[in-house]
Structure formats: C-alpha cells, structure tokens
Amino acid sequence: MTTPIPPERPALITHLLRLAENADRAAFAQLRRGLGKPPGTNIGSFPYVVPFIPEADSGAARSWPYFVVASLFASHPNQGEAEKSVAAAVRGLKDSPSRDGRFRALLNAHVDEVGDHLRHAVNQLASSGITFDWATLLRDLRGWGHPEQFVQRRWARDFWSEG
C-alpha cells in the first residue's frame, strides 16, 4: 500500500513562513495594509505576493485568494496545523450563537466579501490560540466561487461534524 503524497505547499505560503521566520515586520506591515481593501489593490503588497502567484492564476479574477491569504497571514503569522481547515478551527472556538451565525455568514459570502468574513474569523482564532493550515486556506479560496460550492460544503462538514 502506498502512502498518499500530500499536496505541495504553495510557493506563497513557503514565502510567508520564511518572512515570519525572519520576523520581517516591514513586509508584514505592507501586507496588513491590504486588510479591508479589495484584494490586489494594495500596491505595497505586490513585491511580497505577485512573484508567488502561478501564471495560471495571474489575472485579477483568479489572484484574489493570494492577496487575501497574504494579508490575513501578516495579521496573525503562525505555522498552523497541516491540512486543518478554517472551518475545523472555528469549530474549536467556544460554542455560541454568534460563532454559528458568523460561520453561516462566511459560508454564504460572495468572493468579494469572503476576505472580510475571514478577517473576523482569523482574529477570533488568533485570540483563542487556535491555528489552521494556511496552504489549505489558499487552496480552498481558489475554489470558493465554484457553482457547486464544494469548498463551502466541505467546510460545513468540518464545522458541524462530531469529529
């Protein structure tokens, strides 16, 4: 029996982890300026993000997840748990009506709004010391706008499962 090969870590995540390892405060300050702004509009983040976007995702309609993840990572850099989704991490927050309501709003968010919803979730997770996998988040956001909502369905399973 062969062991499945884990998905390769995206270059952007490797770069962000290296910036964190080097405590590059200037880079993170530039990346944080993208929080709350439309992804890809903060020119200061370009040197830290654009070189790590694969050619296939280089257009504005496909590059937005890279900018969202980079700005969120800069706000709370951490290694995270391998392949743990944001949904599984949010499940670990104290159970409350606001947690469920915010998570439902996140699942229902349009690609233009998902970054803002994630910013609130990441802030809550960071303040509770709960981590997740940034590479998984990037992969998930790349599929966020799919009409079959496969990412949202997987997140719903991760959040509401008994595991």
What does this structure look like?
The chain has helices spanning 11-21, 25-32, 46-49, 60-75, 86-91, 97-108, 114-127, 134-142, 150-160. It is an all-alpha fold and 163 residues long. The chain has one domain (11-160): CRISPR-associated protein Cse2 (Peroxidase, domain 1). The longest helix is centred in the middle third of the chain and has 16 residues, at 60-75.
Tally of domains: 1
Structural class: mainly alpha
Q: What shape does the CA trace take?
A: globular
Percent range of helical residues: 55-70%
Order of helices and strands: HHHHHHHHH
Total helix count? 9
Report the radius of gyration as a whole number of Å.
Answer: 15 Å
What's the quaternary structure here? single chain
CATH 4th-level superfamily: CRISPR-associated protein Cse2
CATH architecture: Orthogonal Bundle
Residue share in β-strands: under 5%
Alpha-carbon distance between the termini? Answer: 26 Å
**Total number of strands:** 0
**According to CATH, what is the class?**
Mainly Alpha
Average pLDDT, rounded to a whole number, is 91
Give a short account of the largest sheet: none
Q: What would the CATH topology be?
A: Peroxidase, domain 1
Low-confidence stretches: 1-5
Keyphrases for this structure?
Peroxidase, domain 1; 56% helix; 0% strand; disordered N terminus
